[in-house]
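Re: beginner question about structure tokens

> Can someone show what the tokenized structure looks like for a real chain? I only ever see the sequence side.

Sure, here's an example I had lying around. Input first:
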Amino acid sequence: MVEKKQFAGQVFERLLAKTPEPKIELQYSNPFQLLVATILAAQCTDLRVNMVTKTFFKEYPTPAKIARESQMVIAEKIKSTGFYRNKANSLIACCQRLMADYQGEVPRTVGELEKLPGVGRKTASVVVSNAYGVPAISVDTHVKRVADRLNLSKAKTPEATEEELKAVVAEENWTVFSQLLVLHGRYVCVARNPKCKQCTLLDICPSNEKVTS
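And the corresponding structure tokens:
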């Protein structure tokens, strides 16, 4: 475990040197907007979500407005994000719960957020860490893939991956570390044909001979 912690520290330092201020790419100005954007980002690029929310947030600045809107109207406005009917149902139900149980305020804990319709652990972790500054590791497909290739985790589920990463990364670095892995997985350590020759981790990566450079 000590060796894995040291290795995780190396990974963190190198990725941070390359991207000193890693930021979530979803655009938002408050916790509610981040919650909505993260729900919309499922199976969709952040770029597309940002295009949609640019006008969506002007029309629906509060959970109260979404809570009383029809599914058909919301679905049409978010159609280009994909799975729009399910997402519309989730947004409306989520906002109705926010109004009923939280006076329209977005909860500050992962546990409370996970109780909201349409909100899984990854979404909850993204919200608390980026909107409220609570250390959290959010495991998406990029984090899962990079952690697996680096042998930082071999867990089968995102939840188990999160726990294994938390065990080897200092708590104060959880949020930044997971965001670094997101960006690394999105732009360098991609699913197919990873860009190994561009990778700052190439010489220490245990998978560098198993993937296509």
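Each token stands for a local structural state, so reading them left to right follows the chain. The longest helix spans residues 84-102.
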